[in-house]
Each structure stands twice: as structure tokens, then as C-alpha cells.
Amino acid sequence: MSLAAQAIGVRRDDVPERSAQNEEQRKDLISRKKELKAEIAKMVAERAVGEISEQAAVWVQRTEKGTHDFDFLGAVASTFVLSEEKAVIVVTSTPLGMTPSLLLIQSKDQNLAKEVNEKLKGALEGGENGKGRVKGGGAKGRYMSKVEGKWTKEDVVRVMEVIEEVCRWSPARSLLTGAQFRQRGLSA
């Protein structure tokens, strides 16, 4: 009891009460963190919806360690998909120094999401040491994968090329050139 009192800086008699307070504060912080992540996901998705006016696909790139999880990426994608019938969203999370990178693809059009997933998987596994690099799967218009190894500039180009190809492929939206896509690219 004395060691615990020293560790948290209170008298021995106050250890149980202080421990209970600390536990309540911890639970409150976890709850607030979830609420903040949900709010940020909504803002990112609304920004993506604003970008979709001329495209069949939107790519949201995340590099923050605090949002490097499928829960956050899924919240962004789900909010986006509620607003868009014929578009696909690709969300990547590639914080510096963290592996694996996360990839989420979602669309109400199940065939479009599947097509994008297969093309991205093939593109990211291409090149040296690429085979078996992308692990994951999905169904019903939602695909989640982990990409092993360092996320490189070549990976960025590969994702961009697949999205540009999808924009050409989908009859629902007009084609954007690479330069136009880069100007509109999201990096929230």
C-alpha cells in the first residue's frame, strides 16, 4: 500500500479513493477519444464528398498516428458512402515509421469496390518484394487490407494510377487527368 501511495503521490489511506478516481478519468478519456475520432471522421468524409463532384473515386490519405486504425477509416468510408451512390472511396493510413499501412475501400456499388480492391492489390504487390505484401479481404462493397513493408512514393503513384483508371472505367463520372487528380487529392 505504501508503494502505491508513493507512486500516485497520496497518503496510504487515500489510495483506494484516488485509484477509483483515476479509473473513472481513464474511462472518461477513452470515451472522449472515441467521440473526437468520430467527429474527425465525419469532417474528413464531408470533405471527400465535396471532392466527388467530377470523379468516380476519392482517395483520402491519412498520416496521423492517432487515426491509424480500421475503426476510424471505416467511419470515414461509411459516412462518405451514405452520401454517394456510384462512387468508391479509398482510404489509406500510412503514418511515418508505422507498419503495416492500412487500406480500406468501400462503395455501395459492390462490383466497383471489388474491382478497385483487386486492381489495388495487384498494383501494390507488383514490383520487387511485393508478392504477398497485401493481406486482407472483404465483401459486400467493403474491403480492408494491411500492406506490409514501408509505404513508398511508388505506392502512392500506384494507388493514384488505379484510381485514375477507375475514373475512366466508370460511366457515372467524367475523367480527370492526373494533374487534375493531384490538385484535388485529399490529404487530411
Helix content: 40-55%
Q: Roughly how many Å is the radius of gyration? A: 21 Å
Low-confidence runs: 169-188
Structural class of the secondary elements? alpha+beta
Please provide the ordered H/E string of secondary-structure elements: HHEHEEHEEHH
The CATH architecture name reads Roll
The N- to C-terminal Cα distance equals 47 Å
Mean pLDDT: 80
CATH fold field value = Diaminopimelate Epimerase, Chain A, domain 1
Indicate the topology:
Layout: H1 2-8, H2 15-51, E1 57-62, H3 70-83, E2 88-93, E3 101-107, H4 110-125, E4 134-139, E5 142-147, H5 153-169, H6 178-184
Parallel strand pairs: 1-2
Antiparallel strand pairs: 2-3, 3-5, 4-5
Overview of this protein structure:
The chain has a single domain (32-184), classed as Diaminopimelate Epimerase, Chain A, domain 1, CATH 3.10.310. α2 runs parallel beside α3 (70-83) and α4 runs antiparallel to α5. The longest helix is centred in the first third of the chain and has 37 residues, at 15-51. The chain contains six helices and five strands, in the order ααβαββαββαα. β2 and β3 form a beta hairpin. It has helices at 2-8, 15-51, 70-83, 110-125, 153-169, 178-184, and strands at 57-62, 88-93, 101-107, 134-139, 142-147. The chain has a five-stranded mixed sheet with strand order 1-2-3-5-4, sandwiched between helices. It has 188 residues and is an alpha+beta fold.
